[in-house]
């Protein structure tokens, strides 16, 4: 085939598919820098987030980024205590979903199941046990305890697994500038800042704002109707 024929063939292909390619590029760029959805495969954020939840993530709220990079073009908001955020793990780069517990300059400590931020001990009351019915059978079999944690950030339910050993004592630690301390709501089954340390601001890619849809992995991915469009935070 001559060079002229090859150029004509390439031109014809480009004319036929340039719209599709442009659409794909714009869609991927939108998902990378503006908004995206992620699937949650683990129970580290039980009872707030369940395995099989598909979350809507606002990626521009913390600053508009160049697509496919962590380089920000605008400053955006700073993450707040209690925000549920998506970030790249500082240990292995995997995308994780956790809750912001402490901000730059804060001191944070954990005394058993009691969280202490800036010297203030969190208040604990009985959590909302309606959340128990959505848990996987393997988690429910561990006799989880639900507590309402308040007083050191946005009030939310956490889950304790009495028969599971986790890192329940540390600190007090001061959060360095530009860093954040993350915990999972499932305190006894979460790999978080207790294990991989502080999370840099630039690693935080977005705020999880809503469960779009939830598919139960224990029941052939049947939709959980009660979790349709459930807001987070």
What does this structure look like?
By secondary structure, the protein is of the alpha+beta class. It has one domain (34-231): Umud Fragment, subunit A, CATH 2.10.109. Helix content is 17%, strand content 34%. It has three helices and 16 strands. The protein has helices at residues 3-33, 137-140, 193-196; strands at residues 35-39, 53-58, 84-88, 95-102, 107-111, 114-117, 120-121, 123-126, 145-150, 156-160, 169-174, 179-183, 199-200, 204-216, 222-223, 230-231. Strands 1, 2, 3, 4, 12, 13, 14, 15 and 16 form a nine-stranded antiparallel β-sheet that branches. A four-stranded antiparallel β-sheet has the order 7-6-5-11, with no helix packed on it. The longest helix has 31 residues, at 3-33. The protein is globular and about 75 Å long. The model is unreliable at 26-35 (pLDDT under 50).
Set down the secondary structure blueprint.
Blueprint: H1 3-33, E1 35-39, E2 53-58, E3 84-88, E4 95-102, E5 107-111, E6 114-117, E7 120-121, E8 123-126, H2 137-140, E9 145-150, E10 156-160, E11 169-174, E12 179-183, H3 193-196, E13 199-200, E14 204-216, E15 222-223, E16 230-231
Antiparallel strand pairs: 1-2, 2-14, 3-4, 3-14, 4-12, 5-6, 5-11, 6-7, 8-9, 9-10, 12-13, 14-15, 14-16
Properties at a glance:
233 residues, alpha+beta, Umud Fragment, subunit A, 9-stranded antiparallel beta sheet, 16 strands, 34% strand
